[in-house]
């Protein structure tokens, strides 16, 4: 008989749909977001909102380059980060100095002398990247959901069922990427109080259509398809970029042996993940559950034995 | 090569093809004043000072000519490089920035000396008078497809050695545009400049082509037409015109702005680029026709008579007969400048009674917003048709002038009607996109409430006006009463049939109603009618060709069965040039159309695209002497709309400001022109009025009062004046507030805080925005000085989900002389920290700057700055002002 | 769908392979019935994006005479189904809560809008056009040239309109003698 919890039920490489109990599921679906061709147009943000009828996220200027929706949230399921990167040599000469966390946003204003220097250093970069729910192989949000609202689809994706969710919010801190959030407003919007995030357009892909963001993306920065195939494509793209001299190109979330068992939505980045506001080495927050469960079970057993001994001893 | 365009931001979906080319190995270069989302994806970004593109491109031309990198075979055969010019021609190097024939009094040229040698010389002075009139009437727009009028066979030197051949003239003209000069004028380092030269020339020639992309970053200058000409010269020299992967792509900014030029809502042209008759030039029907077809000249305009008759027949139907010159007399006459900016001045002066705004928001979108709004406040009535309550409909209650007290609602007499319009899915019809392709939209749903299409509005307005005049015996009312205004109606709102209108545009046989297949079927006897000859074929065989949607993947890459492109469904203009003079492709990998001697009876042109050439005219065809019209175009002359069949490196006619592009400074510039004594375009159109002041520029004093250069443009997230974006939550949230981009250095110099507020001041206005300090703006070293550029988006106003000050309020009105388009891409300004003053105090701030700069004394700028007639004002000198007794 | 006690989630969970209740056992009724509205639309019509001049083809999905979705048409050789943020927001353009649906009229010297019905507004505009034309009519200009026109009526707009609309606009104004007819192409 199949054990209640498999070796990789909560950590490590696995086919998530089969693991969740789907018999002969279709190929796992996901996104490969190639940020090297992203033009930062935000068509993905808008197409997502139009399709999923997500309310606006408020109208305030952040000053974080051209990013005014700030981060993934209940009301922003695709989010484009803009990173204005000053010329590299300036940081290189400053090895022992402060570490630039590289959070998205404009560079701190430099002195006029500094600006003079930039006149000779035109190697400025403006990185753009469309972030989205990673649809983790091991999704902590799903594992902690007490109602069964968050579930694994036959495509291996992770989806909230609004008719089940009771708004408890356990999923929110469970996500290692800070993706899922309860919708707090605006008043009158649908699903207020309920956990919200990307569904990989579960309704569309179930009908053989592409997710709205991937359909809209003008430059194929967002590619949708079978995760296995996308991983191959992503590897080839990295090699191509390396051959072209873009040595900073690397994949993020494509490795099944990483902390979330590989993401269903992974990325090609041109710098460290932190630069884009992504955690460098995310780990599913429920990774230690089996271990804890075994420990807890042993402790419970010991307790029971102890109690039994004590009970027997008293009888004796 | 992308210059004068922010393609990734303004045309993101078109940019997919640039990314595709890049993935296949193309190098992408972006030349722009600001690092944009286009720059971020380019292989090379070259920052350039705003308004110096001719100096930059002139430098590339010089590089090509000095190093003989031109595609010589193409240049000799297909351009006018070999043609020999008149002995009388004098260039800008001889005359310090002016060409021969200049009259400082009228600031116009007599182009007699610019002509080809041995050409029939026009009488002295006649040309000058024409130029004056042409400037007033934006004649270059009429010439958009008219081309060059050439009679006879001008002498040529195919060796290109004759000192007066165009090639040598061109070489001399640009010989001073060296890498050192480019660095000094444009602020572009010599290494970066030479890298562009290398890339452009290496990717051009027999086996390779380079495409050039521009947008209004080139158009909206006082020398805008010449910017584009410079690009055209380069693309001709490098053999990139009429060939796949080459050409010049003008990316237009509105869904049917191409269509609204082809079937114009413009004062100086009629459908198909026929000129509006001018009371001076076109007294008779024949005068009018001849002014287009130039009897005896060569090329396709020879049939202009038929195109004109068909239009008049389409307008006045049965009433238009050969006996009454097809009602030519019914056409109103223009007599000069009736353009939108002139009209706004006339509104301010109380000459205009009623104004229609149709999906347009000049209170935010046109230059000099204050003038726009003051004009609207001085009308009898204003009709605004739009989807939303835009600023042009609410100027009387919440415009900046209401805040300053210049418009008082209780004293403003303008009656305003705001009609809700139908959206693009609530009506049917065609848009013409940027590559001249018409695409039909099917109506999806009925418009809500009282919203109606323009088709509905104008059809019924016309019907009601005609009903009111039905009993009139006034001669003036005949054109309205005789108008062919009978379109089938349908639906509960009596919507006119857009397809019936399209059929009229296409043209048909009057007797049978059979739609015409080609404009070559148009007759000049009244037996056919057609509203726009270049669109003939869109309804060929009675089929709406614009509605074709055969999937792209099921046809060739040219996709000829998707929509319909004018003329004759050609997708690539002048594609005869993709084959060599003998009719064979220049190279296999760059083939598009070619001569197939085995096809048809005696051979035919064939290929992936519809050949832009007479199908059966062989490459060996040579016209007999004295032949005119189409027959005069030889089998190896690809530029069939030009009188000599050649691409014009040098333009002897048709341009007001000279036969060759020449670097002039923008009207407002902190720098003296280092190339010539002539500072800015000497023939530009200006309205020298107190309410249209221009900031001073060298050689005048006090340009330092407005020390910075500003430029304005779009963001991906918004659309033009915001009327289709600020009113949508999903777009408003993405760019929710007006902001101003400055470099870290300028922020430090002016004490501007990132995220804080600043205000920008010109002699027209002071506006505010939040500060975005960014290294995407970079100070440049120009002529030994550092120049700061300030960038502003122009999408905001008082309406919608997100509001802010309007950048276009900063602009004055100075126009390109050829097309009367305003110089809105560059001006000078000052930037101050904090929010702008409120109420009347903002007027005081602007006034204090005007006083310091002397603009209060003289709002104009000197235009001719060279020669004995230079009109540089000295009264702005504070000492002189005192002596003059000025306060 | 008829539900029996055997469909109770906990029983489904224990009966099937999804013992942890993370997959099939957790599926709700709404999830089972999920259908994209692109599939349930009454009709799909071909349109073209109204923003810039690239000319991206759109597919407009209509249900109960309402637009329920607008997306790129994959058949188009221009945009291959893709749209920018503005094109992607064009349903928002059509359905925006700020959209005007009635006539607003501002009388001379008024400080507020008032409502008018469409027919009345059309009659008023037609009256004003006839009057302005008569009041400003020129048979000849100040230089005695025959011009037969009015400089009293001007118009701006057309670059966002259809060719058929621009055609009628120019035709009517020309017959009327109004010549200050302009659009964004001059700007």
Automatic annotation (TrEMBL), chain C:
Q: Which UniProt keywords apply?
A: 4Fe-4S, Iron, Iron-sulfur, Metal-binding, Oxidoreductase
Q: Where, subcellularly, is it found?
A: Cell envelope
Give the 4Fe-4S Mo/W bis-MGD-type domain ranges: 42-98
Instruction: Answer yes or no on keyword Signal.
Output: no
The record's annotation in SUPFAM superfamilies points to: Formate dehydrogenase/DMSO reductase, domains 1-3
Molecular function terms from GO? 4 iron, 4 sulfur cluster binding; electron transfer activity; molybdenum ion binding; oxidoreductase activity
From the Swiss-Prot or TrEMBL record, give the protein name: Dehydrogenase
Instruction: List the taxonomic lineage.
Output: Bacteria, Bacillati, Actinomycetota, Actinomycetes, Propionibacteriales
